[in-house]
Amino acid sequence: MKQKERLRVLYVEDDPSSATLVERVLGAEGYEVIVATDGVTALEIASRVQPAIILMDINIGGMDGYEVTTRLRSIEGMRRVPIVAVTAATLRGDRERALIAGCDGYIPKPINVDSFPDQIRAFLGGLREEVESPEEKARYLEDYSRRLVGHLEEKIRELQEAHAELYRIDRIKTDFIVLASHELRTPLTVIYGYTRLLLSNPGIPGSVEEEGSPRFFLGKIAEATKRLNQVVGDILDISFIDANKLDLAMEPVLLGSLVKSVIRNITEMGTERKLTFEEEGLENLPLITGDSQRLHQALWNVISNAVKYTPDGGTIHIAGQVMERTIHLTVQDTGIGIDPEEQERIFDRFYVLEDTTLHRSSKTAFKGGGLGLGLTVARGIIEAHGGRIWVESKGRDEEQLPGSTFHILFPLPEENADHQHPSTDPLEQG
Ligand code: ADP
After folding, report:
1. pLDDT (0 to 100) of residue 148
2. Is residue 363 very low, low, confident or very high in pLDDT (cuts 50, 70, 90)?
3. pLDDT tens digit string along 15-59?
4. Topology, domain 158-242
């Protein structure tokens, strides 16, 4: 046997001493014993290594040995592999239950070291046990189905409880973040207010550009406080969006002008990023009803992301058109792109793709990170206006730069939908 390829035995057993004993006994006979300590691992190993025989302890945690056996039998290539229950359970009917679940035999534990190798050889040689009487077989089958459903129900209940617990913990975390943000906002407003007051005082020497002067330091404090205030604001916005309580001050809004003012804001920040902005069809967009400040915020988040994830020399193309009573805005960049599996997750709160250990906070620098709230807030605002936002990209590639295109849709109220087209109403044509 030594020269031949060693036969593989998969032993599903969560008790280390039983595993060691079987490994020793069968190892001495030239078998290769692979131990799996739970059912899910056993299923994974079985499909991968194609064992010659599987020894199954019935009383394992999670899926029990019966269930693992039934599942193994449904795997292509496992239908004919002998599965032998090796178990200490000695209740009446255990053998029958094991056979009904799909086992070919039953060896009680503790194993008899002397006869064990012969028993294994017999199963490898084709021995198959069966429940003899058809009536008994039917009864055990029914009993087994009931057990399976019972176990499934128990697992579903456990999952529901775990889910409820996770939800509760998540709520506590969110409540804490919101509360902490509220607490931060008040002192921040005070710091920001007094800093602005000091900056307006002509007695403060220097200028905000003159490094090292008192006015320069005050300028930096004001800038940092403003940024901090925005972060706190984003967190509070998310809590309003989550609770469906985003207050919108509705008024007529020209989206094209909003986009232009966002672009102006970004370019005025003096980013020196050497990016080209292209605009298409923005002038002709019809009026919508919305909260212009909130919409500005949403567009800012999307367009500033296009800036952040596009290397110098790139282009950001923003286009608008009306299609089927909907305004369709696209923000297309020539940046690093986003992998398909991430394209929905980036709208989740606190979700950032960049390595957080290399995090640097910036609103416009290449790959300058944020809190991972920008797109969550943008989606919340857009959806509160009855709109939709999603992204398309071939994938992420920092060399080839496939780019990303964010699509934003806003529905038009019925009477505005044909705004762009000459009226066909005979009364108006008079
Ligand atoms: P942050 O405020 O951290 O930028 P966002 O919610 O705005 O968070 O974006 C989440 C993640 O989505 C970012 O960390 C980034 O990896 C990815 N992302 C957003 N916009 C783009 C884009 N235009 N190109 C490539 N990746 C992007």
Report:
1. 93
2. low
3. 999 999 999 999 999 999 999 999 999 999 999 999 999 999 999
4. Helix Hairpins (1.10.287)
Give the DSSP H or E segment for 180.
helix 134-199
With contact defined as beta carbons under 8 Å apart, do 266 and 364 qualify?
yes
- Find out whether the beta carbon of 369 lies less than 6 Å from any atom of ligand 1: yes
- Three-class SS of 89-137: CCCCCHHHHHHHHCCCEEEECCCCCCCHHHHHHHHHCCCCCCCCCHHHH
Å from CA of 374 to ligand 1 middle: 8
In 88-133, where do the E strands start and end? Answer: 105-108
Residue 344 pLDDT greater than 60, yes or no: yes
**With a 6 A CB cut-off, is 372 part of the ligand 1 pocket?**
yes
**Measuring from atom 21 of ligand 1, which residue has the nearest CA?**
305
Question: Which residue's entry shows tokens 């367009």?
Answer: 303
Q: What is the CATH number of domain 8-130?
A: 3.40.50.2300
Indicate which atom in ligand 1 lies nearest the CA of residue 331.
23
| Tokens representing residue 300 in the block | 């800012």
> Does the Cβ of 336 fall within 6 Å of ligand 1?
yes
CA of 247 relative to ligand 1 center, distance in Å: 25
Q: What is the number of the ligand 1 atom nearest to the C-alpha of 396?
A: 25
Q: Point out the ligand 1 atom lying closest to the alpha carbon of residue 406.
A: 23
Return mean pLDDT, the chain.
90
Higher model confidence: residue 249 or residue 354?
249
Instruction: Find the 391 Cα to ligand 1 centroid distance in Å.
Output: 11
Answer whether 0.85 is exceeded by the pTM.
Answer: no
Preceding amide of 110 cis, omega within 30: yes
Residue 336 CA to ligand 1 center (angstroms) comes to: 11
What topology does CATH give the domain 251-416? Answer: Heat Shock Protein 90 (3.30.565)
Query: Domain ranges in the chain?
Result: 8-130, 158-242, 251-416
Predicted confidence (pLDDT) per residue in 286-329, tens digit: 999 999 999 999 999 999 999 999 999 999 999 999 998 999 99
